[in-house]
Amino acid sequence: MHDWQSLSPVRWECKYHMVLIPKYRNRVFYGKLKRQIGGIWRDLCCHRGVELWEGHCMPEHVHRCLRIPPKYSVAYTRGFLTGKSAVRIQRELLRERRVTGLPFWAVGSCVSTVGVDEAAVRQYLREQEELEQRQGELDFE
């Protein structure tokens, strides 16, 4: 059903849908640039242990579905990915030597969680409570 990940004290499944736009909403994602940005993002995600499940470049924005370990906040991950990808896009793809002062991503973004259905979580909690009550009754007999 779910592909849970594990760190030493915790099992987790933290998936997020992230939408980013380039500065001034320029329509910069096309052709070769569109394909190469995916490689840059995959490489950066790999460095931090973030899984890039899926991603799509539209002409003026980028959609990413990421699985972020709970040891990193969403804001930290967004900052890392946008900062490092901006530098690499400027250097490798746009061939700019001067990187400081050349913003690529806009300040705003959109992030939403992707995960277990709320109804499924509530049902699980109810079942756990019922199971606990039944076990308590058996202990007293």
Protein described:
By secondary structure, the chain is an alpha+beta fold. Helices cover 43% and strands 26% of the residues. It has three helices and six strands, in the order βββαββαβα. The protein has helices spanning 31-48, 74-93, 118-140, and strands at residues 5-7, 10-12, 15-22, 51-57, 62-67, 105-114. The strands form two sheets. A four-stranded antiparallel sheet has the order 4-5-3-6, with helices on one face. It has a two-stranded antiparallel sheet with strand order 1-2. A hairpin with a 2-residue loop joins strand 1 and strand 2 (10-12). The radius of gyration is 21 Å and the shape is elongated. The two termini are 36 Å apart. The relative contact order is 0.18. The mean pLDDT is 81.
Total number of strands: 6
The rounded Rg comes to: 21 Å
Low-pLDDT residue spans: none
Morphology call: elongated
| Helix count, DSSP H or I runs of 4 or more residues | 3
Supply the helix-strand structural class: alpha+beta
Name the helicity range. Answer: 40-55%
Widest beta sheet: strand line-up: 4-5-3-6
Question: How much of the residues is beta strand, in percent?
Answer: 25-35%
Major sheet? 4 strands, antiparallel
N- to C-terminal distance: 36 Å
Kindly report the average pLDDT value. 81
SSE pattern, N- to C-terminal: EEEHEEHEH
